[in-house]
Amino acid sequence: MRLKDLAEHLGLSQTTVSRALNGYPEVNEATRLRVTETAARLGYRPNANALRLATGRAGAIGMVLRGSSEFGPHTSEFLSGVGGRLAEEEIDIIVTTVQTYQDEVAAYRRLAASQKVDAVILHSPTQHDERAKLLLQLNIPFVLHGRTDIGTPHAWLDIDNAGAMERATGHLLDLGHRRIALLNGIKDRTFAVHRERGYRDALKARDVPYDATLVSNGVFSDEVAFRTAHDLLERDPHPTAFLAGSMMTALGVFRAIRQAGLVLGKDVSMIAHDDVFPYLNADNMYPSMSTTRSSISQAGVRIAELILQILGGKPAADIHELWPVELVLRESTGPAPG
């Protein structure tokens, strides 16, 4: 079916049908829904090359990854969500890999100059992220995965890291734990700042002193977590509970607990943040892992949809989504040992 055939079937002009399918704001919502529903029912798919010529769009979204730490399971899950949703619209992802912050800045400038992408996904922000300011200056539409405070409205999607960590810490405190170790992310990242804030708020609410020696920051990896947890468990007294920043971190903590001759869920408790990996299921671990849970793949899907909304004319300043995080209690948490 051609665009002309679809327009004749609907009794509309080809221009109106094309604008409705491409999300132009001047087409009213009732017409847009009628056009898109009819197109789906009749199996109409716009020609990607014709669409790009008509709209002036590149038909691609950009993402810049910096350093080896950004090539892990979290990134692959996120990209699977983004890519799957964009593929439905015949939009590609251009991934650029760099090593330094200066290289990343240069990559954004190249993307702006070449016009190879219609928008950018910005990830792993700091609290006052200069990259977001740069993208605004370069006039590149973007959606931020996370939050930053740059004093200018922009589109973002984040999970409630502070609330999640406050609930998890509070649960452990209610079980009688007082020495709770937090294995957090890289120190300057906004999510890590928010998680420590939630941790501190839970301690303060129960009049438990904050101990900086129980908090560590770093990349989420099995090996880093193992070394950190091993050192903490050699102390006297050692932590009776751990908050692991990711499931990869939880694996390292679990190894350290076993090496120390302790039993998870009995001698030591643990709650991990779970981005819902299909190959690392908290239910299938032994003992099963208590988690704060939020799907990073679904976040990727949603960010792709938000980018489509921006390209369709929705103001970036109107796009702010904060997702709640679920606390799922399983066998890895128990009362503090007497």
Describe the structure.
The chain is α/β, with parallel strands linked by helices and 338 residues long. The protein is 43% helix and 17% strand. It has a six-stranded parallel beta sheet, with helices on both faces. A six-stranded mixed beta sheet has the order 7-6-8-9-10-12, with helices on both faces. Helix 8 (161-174) runs parallel beside helix 9 (190-205) and helix 10 (222-233) packs across helix 11 (247-259). The model has no long low-confidence stretch (mean pLDDT 93).
Give a nutshell description of this structure:
The protein has 338 residues and is an alpha/beta fold. It contains twelve helices and twelve strands. The strands form two sheets. The protein has a six-stranded parallel β-sheet with strand order 2-1-3-4-5-11, sandwiched between helices.
Summary keywords:
338 residues; alpha/beta; 6-stranded parallel beta sheet; 12 strands; 43% helix; elongated
Calculate the terminal CA-CA distance, rounded to whole Å. 73 Å
Which outline best applies?
elongated
- Structural class, judged by helices and strands? alpha/beta
DSSP strand (E) fraction? Answer: 15-25%
Topology:
Blueprint lengths: L2 H8 L3 H8 L7 H14 L5 H8 L4 E7 L6 H15 L4 E7 L2 H14 L4 E5 L6 H8 L4 E4 L9 E5 L1 H14 L5 E5 L5 H16 L9 E3 L4 H12 L7 E4 L2 H13 L9 E6 L15 E4 L2 H16 L8 E4 L2 E3 L10
Parallel strand pairs: 1-2, 1-3, 3-4, 4-5, 5-11, 6-7, 6-8, 8-9, 9-10
Antiparallel strand pairs: 10-12
